Amino acid sequence: MTVTGPRCAWPGDHPLNIVYHDQEWGVASHDDRHLFEMLTLEGAQAGLSWLTILKKREAYRRLFQGFEIQKVAGFSEPEIQSLLNDAGIVRHRGKIEATINNARCILSLWDRGTTLDTVLWDAVDGQTIINQWASIHEIPARTSESAWLSKRLKNLGFRFVGETTCYALMQAAGLVNDHESTCFRHSQCQLPL
């Protein structure tokens, strides 16, 4: 990807942050597998830096079977113990169990004829919210939409889906465009799918 102007301040100069920012952050996603991955990673990030999670992302993909929802939903105590022993990921039982639980919740959605995609995008009426932030310091940690989404996901049985985690997921999956208005990605993430 050719950089055609300044980028947001938050990636700093770390290559993993830059690649994630330039290629993925804020791009609208409607794929349940990818949305499940981002939900898992954003939940794992709670209390940690995003860079820490990016450094562990490939291990997450390997250990959680490429985030194949049906496979993760079938994990039980032996898999949990194996995950807890692998330093490649955040070894937090609650976060690991939440990932397995959330996969099962997605299967339940499918059984009812809906998708994670539908549930998430309902929070923004199916359209990306395009913000016009001049600085990273203006970007909120949560919004009324993320509060609504958090409540809905919790009511559906999902875990590690607080308002701040939901807002980070909304940013990551393009439900909101929180690129700074001067960032070269701001206009690119507004293009139709």
What is the secondary structure topology, with strand pairs?
Blueprint: H1 15-23, H2 32-45, H3 50-63, H4 69-73, H5 77-84, H6 93-111, H7 116-122, E1 129-130, H8 144-155, H9 163-172, E2 176-177, H10 184-188
Helix pairs in contact: 2-3, 2-6, 2-9, 8-9
What does this structure look like?
- This protein is 53% helix and 2% strand.
- Strands 1-2 form a two-stranded parallel sheet.
- 36% of the residues are buried.
- The protein contains 10 helices and 2 strands; from the N terminus they run H-H-H-H-H-H-H-E-H-H-E-H.
- It is globular, with a radius of gyration of 16 Å.
- By secondary structure, it is mostly helical.
- It has helices spanning 15-23, 32-45, 50-63, 69-73, 77-84, 93-111, 116-122, 144-155, 163-172, 184-188; strands spanning 129-130, 176-177.
- The protein has one domain: Hypothetical protein, domain 2 (Endonuclease III, domain 1), CATH 1.10.340.
